[in-house]
Amino acid sequence: MLLTSEITHDLWERCGQAIVDQHETIGERKLNPATRPEELRSILGQFNFESGRSPEEVVEFAIRGLRDFGVPTTHPRYYGLFNPSSGTMGWLADALVAGFNPQLAAWTHAPFANEVERHLIRAFGQKFGLEKADGTFCSGGAEANQTAVLCALVAKFPTYASHGTRSLNGNPRLYVSEQAHHSFIKAARFAGLGSDAVREVPVDSSFRLDAEALSRMIAADREKGDLPFMVVGTAGTTSGGLIDPLPAFNEIAKREELWFHTDAAWGGAAAMIPSLDGTLEGMERSDSITFDAHKFLSVPMGAGMFLTSHPDILGEACRITTDYMPRDGRSLDVDDPYSHSMQWSRRFIGLKLFMSLAHLGWDGYADVLAHQVEMGNELKRKLSAAGWEVVNDTPLPIACFRRSSSDSPDELMATVDRVVQSGEAWISFTRLRSDTPVIRACITHYGTQDSDLDALIQSLG
Ligand SMILES: *Cc1c(COP(=O)(O)O)cnc(C)c1O
Fold first, then answer.
1. For the whole prediction, is pTM greater than 0.85?
2. Could you say which of 76, 101, 424, 445 has the lowest number of CB atoms within 10 Å?
3. Beta bridge pairs of residue 235
4. Element (H, E) at 114
């Protein structure tokens, strides 16, 4: 398995060079055209694995595949979903982790990794205003939201952990905005609640969840004998970057004795940008928070975080005892991740965030993020000047726009397709409400510049 140090060194250098090239030269290239599955399947057909190949050939094949097929999210004109280009510290960290391969399941097997992650959970908890935050790193926002649903169920229904939902005398209900991330539908299915348990509250004319409508829906559900247990506020919706009225939600959740979760997968980074101070007001009173370092913070996937102000809840939801796991941590003041999160064997997720933050510091990170916010503002200005109507009102760098309120979804999709086909930029279509189709462009790359914005405006025509 292990190659000689000389060969390894050469391959390492080749991989490093390929990654640097991908980052340094991609801006001069067009974004890749769409790939047909048959094309890749035929290329892969040459691998029947009957005999091995040289490591150089295998490495070149992998580099070519990664470079030439797929939407290059490392491109400064990728105005897409929250898939940033990764920074050097981030990908170096992931390579180091793969090489050393620490096992995080038990604290005593990987004390350094476990304490680095604990340190970060505390530091981000503090940034978000949670006192003494507990939490765990996870694969991404979907797992963090799943963890939140499980913690809320365990906290609100004492018999859930041992007897499941059948021990309850009603149907558990959780409340999200119709603009919330759809991972909550999966979370409800996986938790045995069924997707009906997710109650989608309509958004108001500014596309934010309507607090009054939320109150009314909870009251009506209680009237029917349902069991409300959780309210989710989104801080930075996926489509429009909108921020739900977190303080109002919080009040409703407290009054109704419901778990209050803030899904800040992307928008949570606003807490690191001084000019956006106050944007996330109310998040500090959350029972739990989802944050993805692999989104706005530009570390490689997957780097989700689940944070909570309830230090015992992850243990109540996840603790089990086994004979085969190491026991030497039991006398220490530590949590074993296998008993404190959904995963068991787990890679060291936090190092890429640790190295990125240790290198930049909060101030350096704030500069990177503030640049993206500024590019977002500039994009909105340029779109308006070019006759587009920007319809989402958010300080975060996403523009949702159309020519006029009479634009049909088909017309907007045709514009999106034309831009994407041209290879000049990657943008997408979405809806802010079922009656509001828009084109969406998000600043996801820390290196996007004014000239990249001009190229987008031009390609929109
Ligand atoms: C991206 C996103 C998620 C899902 O996170 P993954 O990391 O893709 O699993 C959840 N909520 C919001 C608001 C998101 O933007």
1. yes
2. 101
3. 243
4. helix 111-127
Q: Does residue 75's CB lie within 6 angstroms of at least one atom of ligand 1?
A: no
Phi, psi of 112 (to 5 degrees): -60, -50
Give the type of residue at 228: P
Residue 143 alpha carbon, nearest atom of ligand 1: 9
Mutate-to-test residue for ligand 1 from 83, 138, 183, highest number of ligand atoms within 8 A of CB: 183
> Which class for 348: exposed (0-12), middle (13-18), buried (19 or more C-beta within 10 A)?
buried
CA of 11 to the centre of ligand 1 (A): 34
Residue nearest to atom 4 of ligand 1 (CA): 141
| 458 Cβ neighbours under 8 A, 6+ residues apart | 424
Cβ atoms within 10 A of the Cβ of 2, count? Answer: 6
State whether the beta carbon of 183 lies less than 6 angstroms from ligand 1: yes
Q: Which amino acid is at 183?
A: S
Contact 247, 275 (CB under 8 A): no
Q: Quick: pLDDT tens for 391-437.
A: 999 999 999 999 999 999 999 999 999 999 999 999 999 999 888 99
Distance 246 CA to ligand 1 centre (A): 18
Collapsing DSSP states into helix, strand and coil, what is residue 332?
A: coil
Tokens found for residue 110: 């990987």
Give the pair of three-digit tokens for residue 331: 């006398």
Which of 290, 430, 440 is the pocket-test mutation for ligand 1 (most atoms within 8 Å of CB)? 290
Q: Are strands 304-308 and 389-390 parallel, antiparallel or unpaired?
A: unpaired
